[in-house]
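Q: A reviewer asked whether we had any structural model of the full assembly, not just the individual parts. We don't, so I'm hoping you can provide one. Inputs are below.
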Amino acid sequence: MREVGIVGIGHTKFGKSNVPFIDMTCQAALEAMDDAGAKTGRKNVIDQVFIGTMAAGMVQRISGLASAVVDTLNLRPAMAETIENGPASGASAVKLGFMAIASGVCDCVLVVGAEGMRAVTGWEGTDFVATMLHPEAEYKYGCTLPSFAGLFTRLCMDKYGVTSKDLSIVSVKNHANACLNPVAHIRNVVKLDRITDERIINATNPLVADPLRQFDMCPVSDGAAAVLLVAKDKQEELGFGGKKFIRIAGVGSATDTHVVANREVPTDLLAVRLSAQMAYKMSGFTPKDIDVAELHDAFQILEIAESEETGLFPRGTGHLAAREGKTEIKGEMPINTSGGLKAKGHPLGATGVSQIVELVKQLRGEAGERQVEGAKTALAINFGGFGNNVVATILTTK
Amino acid sequence: MGKYDIIVDEMEAKLRPPTIGLKPYEPKVIPLTTGEDMLVREAKPEEIEMIVEGIRPLLDHPKDFYDIVSARIIAEGLGMLRHRVQDEYFFVGAVNGEIAGIVNGRLVNEKVGMSYHTMTLKRGARVGAQLFAAKMEYHFDFMNQDEVWIVAESPNGFKRWMIEYELEDRFQCPHELGGVPTFVLTRALWEKHKANKNVGIRPAAELFPEVIEANEVLHMPAKLNV
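A: Here is a predicted structure for the entire assembly that you could use as a starting point for your response.
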């Protein structure tokens, strides 16, 4: 299998976009191409474009997004496909880009993740995200992602002793990290006492889906992120020799039951565990080798649970690690240095690519004030559905 | 004479609305999620003038309906400064001397209040939600009114007020703001929700003299980043 790595990254400011959706998508793509030194038109060397998006058709009324982007960027006749895997669409697109190059079909692949969610109201957004759920067993009864996260959190509280304050600790940490990230959606300091003080909590941090409160879940964001992948054996020839090559050491993905109630152990995130194990096996790394991780914290409980399923902390202790500050930038296992979905934002299809962009910055040593000293190997978990389709990616400088 | 002062001759007196009489609003301090403390108090006339001037850039800002809301607040501010609106009030939320948000409204009669607008200038810290609650507190707990008529320009407002306070629809009553259907916060709904929605610490002057002092003289944010 050929070595595949990342030589270019791009990222729009997450939040509310004021430009047309295709323009926003192209903005991230162009930034990644500029970063790598890739050209358009006759000098184009990109064989394939993959675009990860969940709801461009539903929300933006734009299908065939990859075709539109290729033409807009003057990359014709590059191959182009739009990839949909719910909120894990971005990492799925990266995985397919990796596979296309590793297999020898392509030498250079542009991957973009993009979503424009703020074009609709909040409850319409909650509704279209819920279309990932089982249509007969879940969606038609009004189940939503926040409702599942609330149930999951309650079970974790009962089983492992996770507290509401633990969720707030994760949230405060991610908001602090986002303050250091210029492309984050929410760059406000959040103080722990202000969102946990029982006397004011219902006003400062109201309940959304019991026991989850506002600061226990991500905002609704627009945004796009992009990476340019290239085969190691073609890096020089294609003109990217001057760029640091961040190797994709392992990818893994796994699925779980569509109906959440059918899971054998409801507090397990089996697809997270299996996808991470696949990525570890492919890469030859173990959890001990991971220096920094971006975990899919659409709900703060997920950062805790994923940190356990990926082996970064023993089962039932992720919340204790957060309490002890181990997941902070200066901690022993920094998680979500970007601000995570909680504060950097969560434009569904963009999120998986955005996580990779953050990790590439960390591995290049370009993360500025949120740099993890000496980071060499990194893990990303991008979570689709309520854990029924998860993608893990391991990057390294080694 | 100030910019908006008018000599009150016989005709001017007839042009001015009658008054029921507004009671003073006791300032309070609200702890924000950012760790900062926000003082909520009545706006002074010179501050209303500053707001009228300061939010003009938002007239070109359609996001979240800031354009319409700013246009209307400017008109309402001028209406208050020039005595063309009955029993109108403006409150400000202020952090370290900077205006973080604005709310206003008026009395329709002794028992009915009319909510005008809530504008957040410091976003992401639930400033708007807190200021709206302060406004409702004024109508119910200071003015002892029975109900407040409310509409919202933006979906954000609809979620915050109509849904979270479970407002009663009274669509046969056109609201003063554009004649759109009215939603009503009744005293019963206020009593149901105020424990969760209405926060703030008093007496502010005794407990937070430094916050009072820091917000004695206010200024608009250097940049309206909404």
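A: Points you may want to mention in the reply: The longest helix of chain B spans residues 66-81. The helical segments of chain B are 10-15, 45-54, 66-81, 127-142, 155-163, 187-197, 204-207, 209-214.
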